[in-house]
Predict the 3D structure of the following.
Amino acid sequence: MNIRIRHLAMAFIVLYAVLFLQVNRWQFLQRDSLVEDARNNRVTVRQFNSPRGRIVTSDGDVVARTVKIDPKTRPNARFQYQREYPEGDLFANITGYYTVAFGATQLERTENDVLTGKTGQQQVQGVDDLFTRDLTGTVELTVRSDLQKVAKQALKGRVGSAVVMDPRTGAVLAMYSNPTFDPNQVASHDTGAANDVLMALQADKEKPLLANAYQERYMPGSTFKVLTTSIGLETGTLNNLSNFPVTNKWVPPNTDNPIQNYRKKTCGGDLAEVFLRSCNIPFAQTAVALGPDTMVNGVKGFGLEEAVPIDLPGAATSTFGGDADYFKNSLALLAIHGFGQGGVQLTPLHMAMIASSVANGGVMMKPYVVQRRVAHDNTVISDTQPQPWKTPMTAATARTMTTLMEGVVREGTAACCMQLKNGVRAAAKTGTAQLFDDPRKQRSHAWIMGFAPAEQPRVAVAVMLKGVNEEISAGTGGKLAGPVAKRLLDAALPLIP
Amino acid sequence: MPHASSPIASARRRSELLLVLLAGAITVAAYVLASLGKNASIPAGLGPFLGFVVALLVVAHVAVRFLARGADSLLLPLAALLHGIGFVMISRLSDRLARLQATWTLVAIAAFVVTLLVVERVGDLRRYRYTTLAVGVGLLLLPLVPSLGFTSGGARIWVNLGPINFQPGEFAKISLAVFFAAYLAEYFTTKTKEEGTLIGAEPWRIGKLVLPEAQHFVPVMLAWGASVVVMVFEKDLGSSLLFFTLFLVLLWIATERTSYLLMGFGLFAVGAVVAYNAFSHVQTRVSIWLDPWSQYESRGYQPIQALFSLAEGGLTGTGLGLGDPAAVPAAHNDFIFAAIGEELGLLGSVAVLSAYVLLIGGGLRTALRADRAFDKLLATGLTTIIGVQAFIIIGGVVRVVPLTGVTLPFVSYGGSSLVANYVLLALLLRISDTTSRRLHETTDTASVSERIEAWRARRIATKAAAK
């Protein structure tokens, strides 16, 4: 009998050894694949049953928050907290969204640790008051809600974007893009409905999920002449006395196709004149005169071909459309690129940074949207310090550029639309980027970039209206984008000391 | 009364007290941690809770000290540890269930003490074997009584008695273990010169294989029949498997014939195949076990959530009160092992497995030490109940076997289960104590009723002398 009992004991040991191995399998060997399984929403559940910090604008507007779901009014709620975006679509491209089934984007993703109270500092401070489970932090933006609203209104629903910056710091004051989306719909706990919304947004050919202010890039047209001119001035190829023949055609090297001015106009004169009238030929000639190496190095000085160091994910990289070797084989293309046509592509954010660098005495600051990260006990976790990124031009060149850009506003392509309130002098450059050679289906983007006050700039702006229809394409950068920039500068200047 | 003259018993009781208090300390510490993790606050009524735990443990220990002082020192602390971990997990899942479980804990400890009081000698149970058979069968069939029994969670194993519901099957398994130990000890073992050498009756042979005699088929068939009844009419696969395993193990150990085991497995296989083909709920269980992933949206949801829960815990667990074990449906009951695995990690789940292995070890050691067939068989049977039941449900959760809803002994929420398991524990301790007395490890002092008898006899004698 005892032998059998011993056998039984062995049988039990074998059985429990099997359990032991199997538990190891789930908790150790296959743990990662289980935790990462798409159907495993435990992490999400835990997150949605915990509070999450707020994102607020620099003028104190709450643009993302969690609210506790009242079980009395919503007894079947899946989670305890609902993420809300009180301003709807206004900040969608900055905050991003935070969803049950589709992850998080933009600041909701990158600032997750601060918002959930997981940064080292928050955890350490949380030890002090062991009984406060709510360690969620607050993210304070540089963006102003009032300016963001002006940007939205001024765009009037047209596809495009507006970026307002403080040129002295790189702080983004407003950055709005059309089309956009309402993150509340995606943040719905009804994942089926949220999925439908997200699918529709993804299918939309205008890509409302991507901020065209910084996640898309566009042909800059004549606004690019700021770069060509600046490089020309820096290298001495151009100066205030530079003069260009009055003409309507110029055949660049290695081609038979002549370059023409906008709307085939005849145009020429000194640098100030050709800049404010935005002739194409002088800048095509300047680009060729500078040569591929100088031009490519020059635009790189402005941060082209390089990721813009903004504290938002997924920023597109602006490009000149080719390297020096590429243009050595085709100086004609270099000529065309010299006035912002062809393969040149910039993000509106980058354009605002270029305007800022002129405004800031030639120093381009790192752009940023997060000013401060604040812990649950109101201690500051981090306060963003302005940092220079590039120095594309000397202060002297910046002064010359400012004078040239003031001319554009005074009597040039922006004269119509950039006269600011109270006689504040603005500096600007317009752009009308022609997308096709065929005049019958002409489409063009309307651009403007600039800053004010010209003598001591505090606000820089870039506006781009995408050439999606006849109305936009028939207009010019000055007439279409100018009024948007004017409204933004008028609204921003009293607010920014 | 504790005697200085039995040092072995005293040492056992000392280590039991130490271990029981350790289990209590772990329970209270875990309770505080779970509350801190969940609500960031020291639990309300921590003082009373601490008092409650210590009082219950001390009562149980003192009961053993007075009523079974030679008994094994490991069994009670292990049960208390499992019970404590289970209670903390239940309280962490639901305040309401925790209050009910606390009430059941009181009843269970009372049942433990009463069992030790009433069953003074293991042999007493042997005398009532047919009564226990009747009680066991009655309890087993009780849920099938139309107005009394009801179905919950797909199994008709519940009985409604006015304010309380209970699962008579939990008690039936003890009754049937007692009956089978008594029956097998009597008829299947030949008591020769010395008890303990047990030889089966003259067997039939086919070549080398020894077949059981015809009359010996009867109890096997009875056991099989009982399992079938439970499975077919009550749809309780786990208990069915448990009963059958219990009978089979006891038969095998009593007769020392492997042929019984083979025959039993054969019957089990036949029953399993028939049940699989005849009952859709059996097919469902098996298909969920083999591939829960393809039916994630429906029946596979719960077992997969349990795996997610275990995975979430990883090596060291999320920490008590910091996981989300409630994501698994029925986490307080069938799936409490997943909840433990989530919050205490692999370390915690392996600790629980180890506790069961030690408990089984303690039970089987009691069986080995026992010097009478009945005691041996009963201790083996009771241990098998705990060991197999824990294996069935943990195995179900971790997908070693198809999931069948039985409680995890001492750990799961459930009053009937808790009370029954403490009765079972008391019986094991009683067997252990009886053996200890027989081995003269402790003086075989008179039991309470014997003392009362003696007191009466003295009084009568005094009165007679006075006259």
About this structure: Chain A touches chain B at residues 1-6, 8-9, 12-13, 15-16, 18-20, 22-28, 30-31, 34-35, 37, 39-40, 42, 45-46, 49, 130-133 (CB under 8 Å). The radius of gyration of chain A is 28 Å.
